[in-house]
Every structure is written in C-alpha cells, then in structure tokens.
Amino acid sequence: MPVINNIGALKQNLRENGWHMTAFMFNYKQIQYDVLFEDLDNISKKNEYASVKLTFIDINAPERTYSIEANQMQMYFDPKTFREYFVIEFSINLGDIFRQFFDYFVTVVPPVAPTLNIRQNNEIDRALAQNGNRNPNAIYCYDARRLGTKNGKQMNRSIFISNLTKRRKPVLYAYFENEPTVTFYYSPNPEDELSDTEIITKFTFRESQNKS
C-alpha cells in the first residue's frame, strides 16, 4: 500500500489561507515533538529542491530543537547531526533507516492545518516574531505605520508580521488587511502593548498630520 504523503497538500492549504506556517505533533522513539511546518518559498533555503522547513521541538526539553528542509520526496540533512538529535545509532544500513524515518514521518503530516494547542500557538508566535522582528520575544503590538519606498520601490509588510498580527490581534489586522503598505510594530515588553483602538487612533492621527 502506498504511503500517504501530505507535505504538498499541507503547503497548498497554508497558501490558500494566507498562512506561512502551522504545527503538528510527532512521536519517535518515545519522544514527543512539535513540528513547525513552514513554506520555504517565504524564506531563504539551503537546498534548491526543498519546499518546506521542518523544525522539531522536544516538548519535554523545548531547548532541544532541530531544523531541516524537505520536499515530498525526501529530507535534506547532515546524517551525523540527524542521528544525534533523534538518537539513531550508527549502522551500515543508515540509508534504509533514514528512508523508514521519512516514510513514517509523512504518515503524521496532516493534509490541512490542524487545530493548535496553547504550546504550539506560542511556538508559532515566537517563530513568526523571529522571522519578522529578529526577536522571538517581540510579540506585543504597539504601533502601525505606513511603509515608505526603498530604492524607488514601495515596501510592503512581510507575511510574518501579517500572520503574527492576524493571530494575536485579529481585529487590528482586519482593519488594515487590504493595506499591505501598513506594517505593525512589536516589542518584547508586554507593558508596551496597546489596544487595537489605541493603535488605530495613533495611526489615523499620524496620517492626518502627514496630509495636512
């Protein structure tokens, strides 16, 4: 019986819904992981044939993380680092073991983005903040500003900031959803966070000042 492989389906589902990433659970050798699944077309990649980025997070030791790239056919990784992370002993048939790992892994990949638990939501917020703000702790929104031009080209907000705002401040995001030249600013300090109304009021006042 052929192995069901949902890597392509899940990536397409993310794109259709305007998301960059999702997460799901994966168990291997009695260790439970959260897997962050990202669309590699939105970020730089090491392997030209890869289409998604997979970040494994040991839920019992969240500092143990490991990222690799993959497509629907295979994973791309350094064999030694891969073995060490997943505690795979060296053997003469490592190629077969790696293939068995891949074939097992794809059976747990969901075809559509699943419902996330609190832990997974926090992991995704931190990953989006890292991509968008270069700081995984910068998840507290305090401002919205219109972007200018760079080298004569209009700048637009990134998908990471869009996704972070859509997740954490859906009302604020909806207000600016059709204005891609407006981006949102985040702080690592929760005391800096402002309400949707406060941010919109500040933005509206600033816009009126610029037009006067």
Give a short summary of the structure.
With 212 residues, the chain is of the alpha+beta class. It is 38% helix and 23% strand.
Secondary structure tally, helices:
7
The side-by-side strand order for the widest beta sheet comes to: 1-2-3-4-5
- Number of strand elements: 9
Number of domains: 2
What does this structure look like?
The chain has seven helices and nine strands. α4 runs antiparallel to α5 and α5 crosses α6 (170-176). The protein is elongated and about 75 Å long. The chain folds into two domains: 7-106, no CATH class; 135-211, no CATH class. The strands form three sheets. It has a five-stranded antiparallel β-sheet, sandwiched between helices. Helices cover 38% and strands 23% of the residues. By secondary structure, it is an alpha+beta fold.
Summarize the topology.
Elements: H1 7-16, E1 21-28, E2 31-39, E3 52-58, E4 65-70, E5 75-76, H2 79-86, H3 94-106, H4 118-133, E6 140-146, E7 149-150, E8 153-154, H5 159-168, H6 170-176, E9 182-187, H7 196-211
Antiparallel strand pairs: 1-2, 2-3, 3-4, 4-5, 6-9, 7-8
Question: Can you tag this structure with a few keywords?
Answer:
two-stranded antiparallel sheet; alpha+beta; 5-stranded antiparallel beta sheet; about 210 residues; single chain; elongated
